[in-house]
Design brief:
Number of strands: 2
Mean pLDDT: 78
Strand order of the largest sheet: 1-2
Number of helices: 9
Strand content: under 5%
Order of helices and strands: HHHHHEEHHHH
Shape: globular
Structural class: mainly alpha
């Protein structure tokens, strides 16, 4: 099953690149914004290759990484399929449907297949001191392992910064016709960079089991949406709000649901031993 999933992930990576290039070819105009969005979407191909590496090594982080890659890939490619005006080209629609089917299949296998659940349990390798000297091998963490939904929230929240910086970069191309928005663009870039540090701090405490850490990450999520969505609309219009705001909104929903599950698991008392 591991080999079959590896081939499926390779096909998904190839389909992601193929559909994005196909959409770029059929696009009626090839402006700066489309080039940035296409380039960012192509980077997801690298993400699928990293996921293959994690799956082959049985890493537990494969599930949340696969989930957030699937969700954001669907939204990222979907925004390229839909043109500013008129109907999307038929090849683009067919490619998007096929890619969506591949992404859904990957998520179902990662979370539902029993063989994969038993395989994806390994910890990252570290340099450890043994009786024979220094060895590079798997080392169980000293802290209690994170719950699966906490790992999902951690991985998904790390996408906030790039999902803010991409539309901010796209908005640079709009400054030629609207230079008065220069300070807003600079503010957008600053918030995108600050989001990465805020997420890193929240995840640091989440990994250490602080009971208030989910709330902190939740407030970071709210702040990111409050900043990004209005700027998408003001600088890029309704089209930008759909194309660039929707992927961030999807990631925030994944984080919010994962945090809700974490809080629910924490609040539920463990059954008393018989």
């Amino acid at each position: 099953m591991i080999k079959a999933l590896t081939w499926l992930l390779g096909a998904t990576a190839a389909a992601t690149a193929g559909v994005e290039l196909l959409n770029y070819f059929y696009a009626p105009e090839h402006g700066f914004g489309l080039a940035v969005r296409t380039g960012w979407a192509l980077l997801r191909t690298l993400g699928w290759l990293i996921l293959i590496w994690h799956v082959r090594r049985g890493r537990a982080a494969s599930r949340p990484l696969g989930l957030i890659l699937a969700v954001t890939t669907i939204f990222a490619v979907g925004r390229l399929v839909i043109p500013r005006a008129g109907l999307p080209p038929l090849p683009g629609i067919i490619g998007f449907v096929a890619l969506t089917a591949l992404c859904v299949t990957v998520v179902v296998l990662l979370y539902r297949h029993p063989a994969l659940r038993d395989h994806l349990v390994r910890h990252p390798s570290k340099l450890v001191v043994t009786s024979k000297g220094m060895e590079w091998r798997e080392a169980a963490p000293k802290r209690p392992p994170l719950a699966a939904w906490a790992v999902t929230a951690r991985v998904a929240s790390f996408t906030y910064s790039p999902l803010m910086l991409v539309p901010a970069l796209v908005s640079v191309g709009e400054l030629r016709s609207r230079p008065q928005w220069l300070l807003a663009v600079v503010f957008w870039f600053a918030c995108g960079i600050a989001a990465s540090y805020a997420v890193l701090a929240a995840v640091f405490f989440l990994q250490r089991g602080k009971i208030w850490a989910p709330r902190l990450l939740g407030w970071v999520t709210v702040a990111v949406l409050i900043v990004d969505l209005p700027l998408c609309y003001l600088l890029l219009g309704t089209d930008g709000l759909i194309r660039d705001g929707a992927p961030l909104l999807a990631a925030s929903l994944v984080v919010s649901y994962a945090l809700w599950r974490v809080v629910r698991m924490t609040a539920t008392p463990s059954p008393a031993p018989a």
